[in-house]
Structures are given as C-alpha cells and as structure tokens.
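dumping this here so i dont lose it
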C-alpha cells in the first residue's frame, strides 16, 4: 500500500477532466438519450394543410445561404479570396437566394511576417477589409445581405467604435449588436436576426476566443423582438458567430442561450460558425437540439479551410438545411423528409409522415452544358422513385407508411452518378439518429453532444483550479504521508517548497503579465489569472485566456510536478527514462511551445515577466537536474527501490 497512490495517479487526472463535464456540462435532457422524441409526432404542431397531406405543390420556398469564417488575408496565396469569390460569382447567382448571411471572421487579422514556429501577432489590417469590401460590393447591392463580426474581426480593436475597430468603420456595418431583416413573401414573413457577442474590449490573440452574451445584449435582443412584433412572423432564424457553448453568460447559463431567447421569439434554429470543422472531425459542422427540443443549433464549417457553406430552406415553414462544398455540383437540398435531428423539432416528423412526395431542390452549374437526366432517390439501398432532374424543385412520389418506424437512410443520385449527392438518416417517429450501432458514429455523436452542451468558459475555470489543487494535494501527500515519509529526503526540500509556493501563487495570483493586451488602454501591462484579467482600472473576464491557461496547467505544471514526485521512486537511470522521461518530454515540449507562441504574439518581454513562463522553465529545469541523478535518492532505500524497515525490539 506504500505507493498505491502512484498507481491511481492516472485515474485521478483522467477523472479531473471528466468530473467538470458531469457537473457543469454534458447533457441533462433525457430526450437526447431516449430512443424516441415525443415532440416529433405531436399533431398539435400541424396545420390544416399538413393534416390533409402535402408535398405535391410547387412549394412555398425561402432560400438563404450562410457563409462563415472567410478569413480574408494576403499570406495564403489568395486561397481565401478565391474561394469567397467563387461563392459570389458562381454559387449565389445560380441559387439566387432571398438572403445571404456571413457569420463572422470576415478577415484574418493576424500578422503574417513572423519567424517560423513563433506565434502570430494580431492586428486589424486595412488591406484585408479593403479586399473584403471589393469582393462583396456588387453582390451586396443585389440582394439582402447581412454580416456580423467574429473574434478575428475583434483582435486588438481596443474598444467598440474606437479607432482600432475596423469593422464598425465600414459603411455597411450596423451600429447595433442585434440586427434584423424581414423577408416578406405572399405566403408569410420570415425574420432573420443577427447577434454580435464579440467583446466590448478586443484583446490580441490568443486571449480573444470566447464571446460574451451580456445582460445588455439580451436586453437589446428583447427590444428588437418587441419592436418587430406588430406583424405575424412565419419563422425566425438567429445567426451569430459563436456557438452557445463558447459564449460566456452573465446568468451562468442556467437555462442556456437558446432557451433564454426562445421565450422572446420562436427561433427555428441558431446558426453559427467559429469552430470551423473541428479538425475535420465534423465536416458538416456541429449539430445539436436545444434542451427543450423546440429548435436546432447548427455550427457551419468555414469557407477558408473547409470550403463549405450552408444552404437553408424554408419549405411550407419547415426548415431544411445542408452543408455543401464549393465546386461540387449539383447543389441538392432535400426539404422533405429532413435529417433525423431536424425531425426531432416539434411536428417535423409528423409532417413528413403525412406528405405525399419527397421534395428535392436542385441547382446546376450554369457553365456546364450537361443535358438534364434522371434524379433518383434510394431509401435503405432500394429505389424509392425517380424523376427528371429539373432546375429547382423536384417531386418524387413515395409512400411514407413504408418507413413509419425506425431510422432509414435516404440518398439522392443525379445524372447517373455512382456517388450520392446527398445522404442522411431520417425518422418518421422520432427514433434515434443511428439505425445500427457504429463505434465511430457513436463516438462522433458523443463529441457533438459534449461540444454543443458543455459550458466551456465555466469548465475551463474548474479544470485550471482542479489541476493546481491536484498538484498541491500530491505535494502535501508526499511530505506528510507515513507511507512516503522515508522518501522525503529524495524530493529535496528546496524543490518541494519551491513547487508548493509557486502553485499557491498561481492559484491566487497571475499567470501572465502581458504588455499591450488591449490597445488604447492607458495601463501598459495586463495581469491575467484564473480569477480575472486586469489592465489598469478595467477588469476583463478571463474566459478568453482560460484555454491557454488550462493547457498550460494540465500539460506543463502537472507533468512537471508528477515527474518530480514519481522520479523519487526509481534509483536507476533506465527506469527513470522509461517512467519519468515521457513526463519531462511533455513538459519541455509544451513549455517551449507556450514561450514561442507568447513571444511571437507579444514579444520576448512577456516570457521574462510572466510567472508561468520564465519561473516555470527555471523550476522545471532545476527539479529535473536535482532529481535525475540516482545518487540523490535517500540512503534509506534498498537497491530495489523499497525503503528499509527498522525492526523494533
């Protein structure tokens, strides 16, 4: 039992990551985990048209294109501008949407003349804004066009509407944080809302990642809804840059962002960007259902690296959407039935179950002279119907009773292609998203749930505190536990007390001392810690810094303290290299990466001033030097590493 705690050390740190997810994130709504959704087939949500069957008319269609994270810059060889220009000149004229919404990160705003492997300094660059304006000027004048800023558009702008705020200098930029347009059709009015959750004071990277949904912002949203409530609205879409899981909320998100605005307006979906495709794990973006099951939250992959945009269609007031890659034709959107997650929205599955036709929107590249051929629909690998692949809405007759239970796979083939243009699972009874168990699909589903439902600003705070407290607990145990007292001389009192005092300081003090974190603030230095970020008389939420701090704690401090403690167990260099060496590799690699990133972003001064950089590097090298020599191990240990036990008479 003497070193039993060492065996459980990995479990302790793994549980450190899992516990905050269970306490502050994850999924608390049982409908997510149940096999069926009672709202999916609730007929109270159906209108008379749906009750009598629908699907064979020309459609009451509203089309919207969402583009996000264009990242205009001059260091990628023109790739970002070329992709954006392709959308403007080829996709939008063909689809001819009712509106286009660009959800943030319009420009990149990173300095690109930095030394390799160093972090990039961030600043607003007028030439990038000029490029964006030149590309969008013509299209903007021809249809409804909306933009909102992202965190890249807020890098180093100091304060809203200040001299460094290039976004609000644009003549088309809205001065309000909540904007709305109304698309009026003969069959109804459709409202598009945008919400700007960027920080009031925009720090330089990497401390500008999270959005902030303040009470003032929610109040402005409420005022906008109230002002536009004089006429009936068929459907409402809300657009923002930040997914709700990456926004800090003044009310601690007791009910969630979508629920906080759902009482004000019936939101069909909240569309965002920001996370790109999450290292290509989710090529169709992050998709989730709100906790009350009334609306969707959809994160769209970026245009810059993922080459993606989202087609959004209202067909008879029912929402359909699909993520497409630029350059891949034809563009196909199935508006009935919709994917399984969408049919969890009240009435959607019931509407599809009463329909007479599968409804497919199709758009072709006008540069191609390919003749019109067949559009074929397969369900579960069997041909469900086919028709001529015409431009616009295509109708394929089907019998929904055949697919009334369980989950089914629908595929659309155009022009005799062997590969489906669209493939998704649907359900007419609200069944689970997965027709059969798949380890990969289930793992990605869990990732989606965690990423969409976890309150990351709060979670990171808990991880930072938990990591530091865990290191302190380990050090206290090694000093005062009777089973480890014999090893105390090997830990070197100077190393122990240095680590203990240092961890206590980081828990209550400052991690980083940053020169010029927020431009325009009179104070030259900002002090960043888990308890807050202070620059002069201004206090900023530390949520923007917590990603960097959490990575630093768990991949720098934890390996350093663990390596210092575990190395006292082994006398031979071979065993130390085998069991302790990996910890020091992780520590040194992460330490070097942090110093390079912070030095490139803010200059070498930050590495000398910040307690978590120069002092940590010094402590790490000092503890590694004093503990790596086997001769440092107490003489009270036998060669096999076990302590001698004095016999008492």
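and the seq i came up w/
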């Amino acid at each position: 039992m003497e070193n039993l705690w060492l065996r459980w050390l990995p479990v302790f740190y793994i549980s450190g990551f899992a516990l905050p997810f269970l306490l502050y994130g994850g999924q608390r709504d049982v409908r997510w985990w149940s096999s069926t959704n009672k709202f999916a087939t609730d007929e109270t949500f159906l209108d008379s048209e749906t009750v009598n069957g629908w699907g064979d008319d020309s459609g009451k269609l509203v089309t919207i294109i969402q583009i996000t994270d264009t990242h205009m810059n001059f260091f990628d060889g023109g790739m970002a501008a070329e992709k954006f220009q392709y959308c403007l000149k080829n996709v939008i004229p063909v689809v001819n949407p009712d509106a286009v919404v660009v959800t943030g990160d319009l420009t990149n705003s990173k300095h690109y003349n930095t030394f390799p492997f160093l972090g990039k300094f961030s600043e607003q660059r007028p030439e990038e804004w000029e490029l964006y304006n030149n590309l969008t000027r013509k299209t903007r004048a021809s249809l409804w066009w909306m933009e909102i800023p992202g965190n890249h558009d807020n890098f180093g702008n100091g304060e809203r509407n200040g001299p460094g705020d290039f976004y609000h200098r644009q003549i088309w930029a809205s001065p309000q944080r909540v904007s709305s347009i109304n698309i009026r059709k003969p069959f109804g009015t459709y409202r598009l809302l945008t919400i700007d959750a960027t920080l009031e004071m925009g720090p330089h990277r990497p401390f500008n990642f999270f959005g902030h949904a303040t009470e003032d912002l929610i109040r402005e949203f409420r005022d906008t809804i109230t002002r536009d409530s004089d006429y009936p609205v068929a459907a409402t879409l809300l657009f923002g840059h930040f997914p709700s899981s990456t926004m800090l909320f003044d009310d601690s998100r007791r009910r969630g962002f979508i629920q906080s605005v759902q009482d004000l307006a019936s939101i069909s979906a909240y569309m965002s960007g920001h996370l790109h495709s999450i290292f290509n794990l989710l090529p169709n973006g992050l998709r989730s259902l709100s906790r009350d099951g009334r609306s969707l939250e959809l994160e769209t992959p970026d245009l810059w690296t993922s080459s993606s945009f989202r087609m959004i269609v209202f067909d008879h007031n029912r929402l359909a959407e699909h993520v497409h890659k630029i350059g891949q034709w034809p563009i196909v959107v199935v508006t009935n039935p919709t994917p399984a997650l969408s049919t969890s929205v009240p009435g959607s599955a019931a509407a599809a179950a009463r329909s007479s036709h599968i409804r497919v929107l199709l758009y072709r590249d006008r540069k191609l002279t390919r003749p019109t051929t067949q559009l074929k629909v397969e369900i579960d690998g069997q041909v469900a119907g086919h028709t001529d692949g015409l431009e616009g809405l295509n109708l394929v007759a089907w019998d929904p009773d055949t697919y009334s239970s369980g989950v089914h796979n629908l595929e659309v083939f155009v022009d005799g292609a062997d590969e489906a243009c669209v493939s998704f699972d649907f359900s007419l009874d609200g069944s689970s998203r997965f027709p059969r168990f798949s380890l990969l699909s289930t793992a990605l589903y869990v990732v989606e749930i965690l990423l969409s439902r976890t309150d990351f600003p709060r979670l990171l705070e808990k991880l930072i505190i938990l990591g530091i407290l865990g290191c302190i607990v380990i050090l206290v145990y090694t000093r005062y536990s009777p089973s480890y007292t014999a090893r105390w001389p090997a830990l070197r009192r100077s190393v122990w007390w240095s680590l203990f005092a240092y961890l206590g300081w980081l828990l209550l003090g400052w991690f980083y001392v940053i020169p010029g974190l927020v431009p325009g603030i009179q104070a030259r230095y900002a002090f960043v810690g888990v308890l807050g970020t202070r620059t002069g008389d201004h206090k900023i939420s530390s949520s923007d810094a917590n990603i960097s701090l959490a990575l630093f704690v768990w991949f720098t401090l934890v390996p350093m303290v663990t390596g210092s403690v575990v190395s006292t167990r082994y006398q031979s260099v071979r065993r130390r290299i085998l069991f302790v060496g990996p910890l020091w590799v992780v520590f040194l690699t992460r330490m070097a990466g942090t110093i390079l990133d912070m030095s490139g972003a803010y200059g070498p001064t930050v590495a000398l001033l910040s307690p978590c950089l120069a002092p940590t590097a010094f402590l790490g090298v000092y503890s590694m030097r004093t503990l790596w020599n086997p001769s440092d191990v107490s003489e009270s240990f036998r060669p096999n590493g076990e302590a001698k036990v004095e016999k008492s008479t």
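The chain has three domains: 4-15+455-632, 34-59+329-453, 60-315.
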